[in-house]
Amino acid sequence: MKIDSTKLDRAFNPQCVAVVGDSKQTNFEWLRGQLEFTGKLYSVQVNPDTIPEIKALGVENYTSLIDIPKPVDLVIVAVSRTVAPRVLEDCIKKDVAAAHFFTAGFSETHTEEGVELERMLKKRAEEANLHLIGPNCMGIFNPKLGIKQSDDQYTDGSGLVGFISQSGALAVTFSLEAHLQGLDINKSVSSGNGIVLDATDFLEYLGGDTEVKAIGMYIEGVNDGRKFFETLKQVAERKPVVIWKGGHSEDGDRAIASHTGALAASRTVWDTMVRQCGAVAVSGTEQLIDTLKAIIYLPSVKGNRVAVAGGSGGQSVAITDSFAEVGLRVPPLTQESYDELATFFNVVGGSYRNPIDTAGPVRRDMRRILEIVERDANIDNLVLICSTKPGRQMMPAQLQGSLELASHIKERTAKPVMVFVFLFTPDADREKRDIIFRYQEIGIPAFPSIERGVIALKNALDYHHLHDGK
């Protein structure tokens, strides 16, 4: 089937959406999820006991999709699998741009009935050139327009990331976790079984979307490996693509088969092909988020030499070891920098070697210290530590000072600047999220642990080595 980008534009940026088959058994999850939709929302439901409750939500209901008076851009189908073929025919008659089938129970069940129903859906949709998303998926998320995969998702802004996931649950989880860290979705799609439109088609579409600056993917397997990697190479030449491949083991491959029915590939072969195409391979949600943050927010990462400033002695050792383990260096500064630092850095317990231990009163001179380090010829990247003593919360004035200092250094230099956040309080996770979000607001990627920040920088370096100078 030939993919029509105009139809996909309508699906991802709809003016009219219809939800077919939503019911009170699921608390009208699909209708409730679209109540903030900026366009026109309709319901299609034939159960007379359910219709009054739909109207109570403020949604106009029709008993047939055909009767909706407006052209429909996106249909969300939440009926049982036995009814799905009838709804598909109505979508074809109505000439909708695309239909998202939340309905499950097809080839992923490995039952004769499920496989045959999926075959029928695929054949009929392709004959009619209907752009079918799924089945067995969570469909589209466009926060700017209020189209959601889950009522838990946000609609208060639009980011830079396009996200493609074969897992519906992971699509939702990624959007929520990334949002908490200041990395927002522009458009996201859960492709499920991908019987008509698969990950390759969505990769091609988002690759051409000028609003999407980077693409993240969760892939379990692809139907046409050659087509996927050819598309990936073309898209990765235009914008960053970061991919998490599910299924690291024989057990993982078996889980994939029962989840979406996708064919899996060897992890080693997959990662090699991804790198050859100019994309970045990662191994989990955290790496996916962190790598996208680093690539989007940092300028080009040109070298592997890192200066670390602001931590204590123990943190400095752990950070140095972590960088070394992934092939990054924490080298000595130039003698010129040491001579300048020696004129004022004389605190007992502190150190102006690299990492720079800025304990006690010397923090008053942090701006001066970082200005010296920033221009040091031995340094390619700067890592700032935002931390408190054990048991102490980050006070607003301290955080504001740290933010202003980081912003000042970022404005002075073309070198990448990033932040590691260390807190040791009962509510540290929530506090870290808030602090990380504040750094992201000023365009500086911040990370909640040494390991996460180190891997993100290494992945960004690998990405820029692949693409800079082409």
User: What is the end-to-end distance?
Assistant: 34 Å
Report strand order across the widest sheet: 3-2-1-4-5-6
CATH superfamily of the largest domain: Succinyl-CoA synthetase domains
CATH class of the largest domain: Alpha Beta
Describe this structure in words.
The chain starts with a helix and ends with a helix. It folds into 3 domains: 136 residues, 3-Layer(aba) Sandwich (Rossmann fold); 161 residues, 3-Layer(aba) Sandwich (Rossmann fold), CATH 3.40.50.261; 169 residues, Succinyl-CoA synthetase domains (Rossmann fold), CATH 3.40.50. The strands form 3 sheets. It has a 6-stranded parallel sheet with strand order 3-2-1-4-5-6, sandwiched between helices. Strands 7-9-8-10-11-12 form a 6-stranded mixed sheet, sandwiched between helices. Strands 14-13-15-16-17 form a 5-stranded parallel sheet, sandwiched between helices. The chain is 41% helix and 16% strand. The chain is an alpha/beta fold.
Show the helix and strand layout.
Elements: H1 5-12, E1 16-20, H2 29-33, E2 40-44, H3 51-56, E3 60-62, E4 74-77, H4 84-94, E5 98-101, H5 112-128, E6 131-133, E7 139-141, E8 161-165, H6 168-180, E9 185-190, H7 199-207, E10 214-219, H8 225-236, E11 241-245, H9 250-259, H10 267-276, E12 280-282, H11 285-297, E13 306-311, H12 313-325, H13 335-341, E14 356-357, H14 366-374, E15 381-387, H15 396-412, E16 417-422, H16 428-441, E17 446-447, H17 450-467
Parallel strand pairs: 1-2, 1-4, 2-3, 4-5, 5-6, 8-9, 8-10, 10-11, 11-12, 13-14, 13-15, 15-16, 16-17
Antiparallel strand pairs: 7-9
Helix pairs in contact: 4-5, 7-8, 11-17, 12-17, 14-15
